[in-house]
Amino acid sequence: MADITAAMVKDLREKTGVGMMDCKAALAATNGDMEAAIDWLRAKGLAKAAKKSTRVAAEGLVAVAVEGTTGAVVEVNSETDFVARNEKFQAMVAEISKLALKANGDTEILKTMKVPGSAHAVAEYVAEMVAAIGENMTVRRTAVLTVKDGVIASYVHNQIAPGMGKIGVLVGFSGGNEGFARQVAMHIAAANPASLSEADLDPAVVAKEKAVQMDIARESGKPEAVIEKMIEGRMKKFVAESTLLGQAFVINPDLTVEAAAKEAGVEITGYARVAVGEGIEKKVDDFAAEVAAQVAAAKG
Fold first, then answer.
1. Disulfide check for 71: which of 21, 76, 152, 238 has CB 3.0–4.6 Å away?
2. What is the CATH code for 1-54?
3. Where are the domains of the chain?
4. Given a cut of 80, is residue 52 above it in pLDDT?
5. Are 180 and 261 a contacting pair, CB within 8 Å?
6. pLDDT at 48
């Protein structure tokens, strides 16, 4: 049996909005497994959030670059937003995003590529910037999107400088409707779909959601035959809300994105979305506790 600490209970409460005692019970029932505890709370109808809130923002920039039928998006992290607004940092990110067009989505290859006008590779270039600015930085990830016959649309949300901001989106189309392409890119930035279509959804994610929904349905006490029908409808809704083509189009919620694309005479072939700090656990300092500790040390 895992030791359930106060910190674990507090963390679960912040992720779900559920009371401390229920959080403690969930952790106890799942042997301290945070993700399983969230699912346990959902099954009991206690969790207020449908998804776990584990994505904590870190700082830095996401940049996009498009050249012909290829687009690249890259995330470069810094410790503070102050550095993200530094012109030297922004110039470095812009150079890296152009190189990312030829890295084929491989971050490690990108780090070894030579920076134009320099004898240094990207990794060394970043190391020099760290020494110059005095703050840790890293090229975290990159993605590339290519179309054979069509266009690549891009969109940057919370743009700080041309082509870079807090969220970068690329969308591939088999048509040339630029206005619609930008609308879809903005939709992706806002709705954050898990995949393009049902066929692209991670089977493990679907299976996990189905298991949670089964537990929730069984709490109702209804017969298994009725539960199966309930699950069928709930999973259909889950798939629609999780996939780009199945989502209600933010510009016209009466249509799915797929239906809107058909009306616009285009086909969406792929997309990439990168948000700054997505999935990074960022330490939050307890200033009051730090001051109290310093006062105690001074008295001692």
1. 152
2. 1.10.8.10
3. 1-54, 59-195+261-275
4. no
5. yes
6. 46
Written as one string, the DSSP assignment of 230-268 is HHHHHHHHHHHHHBTTTSBPSS-TTSBHHHHHHHHT--E
Counting Cβ atoms within 10 Å, is residue 190 exposed (0-12), middle (13-18) or buried (19+)?
Answer: exposed
Q: Helix, strand or coil for residue 3?
A: coil
pTM above threshold 0.90: no
* CATH of the domain spanning 59-195+261-275, picked from 1.20.1250.20, 3.30.70.1400, 3.40.1110.10, 3.30.479.20: 3.30.479.20
Q: In whole angstroms, give the CA distance from residue 15 to residue 132.
A: 38
Q: How far, in Å, CA of 188 to CA of 197, rounded?
A: 13
Mean pLDDT value across residues 44-53: 49
Q: Per-residue pLDDT tens for 188-246?
A: 999 999 999 999 999 999 999 999 988 888 887 888 888 888 888 999 999 999 999 99
